[in-house]
């Protein structure tokens, strides 16, 4: 079990590494060298690591155990809002587009949260507060 858990924890602590690995591996292995597809795949894979990383940082900074559940709650609310908008505009919900939009917004939100939480958590640690 530690064999699988150790790399996951490492990639969750440093989510830039799986992003770069997936991007460059996909970009170099695809015959067409499509940057957009490589970037989107890297975003999709990195989102998983960012969700766990941001939830751990949230739990550490605010001394709670609610971080992961908060992220899931926000993703569900965003999914409901986007699904409702799709239903009003087109009369039906395209689940594939809905999930893709929520997942990419999760990358954006957790990426920004990761940067903010790292700054907020890092400076008090360095200053010994």
Task: Describe the secondary-structure layout.
Elements: H1 2-13, H2 16-29, H3 35-62, H4 67-90, H5 95-127
Give a quick precis of the structure.
The chain has five helices and no strands. The radius of gyration is 17 Å and the shape is globular. With 129 residues, it is an all-alpha fold.
Verbal overview:
This protein is an all-alpha fold and 129 residues long. The protein is 86% helix and 0% strand. The chain is globular, with a radius of gyration of 17 Å.
Please name the defining characteristics of this protein.
single chain; 129 residues; mainly alpha
Q: How many whole angstroms does the radius of gyration measure?
A: 17 Å
Number of helices: 5
Overall geometry comes to: globular
Largest beta-sheet characterization: none
Q: Which whole number gives the mean pLDDT?
A: 92
Measured distance between first and last alpha carbons:
35 Å
Helices and strands, in order, run as: HHHHH
Helix content: over 70%
Q: What is the multimeric organization of the chains shown?
A: single chain
Q: Could you tell me the number of beta strands?
A: 0
Low-confidence stretches: none
Please state roughly what percent of the residues sit in beta strands, choosing from under 5%, 5-15%, 15-25%, 25-35%, 35-45% or over 45%: under 5%
Structural class: mainly alpha
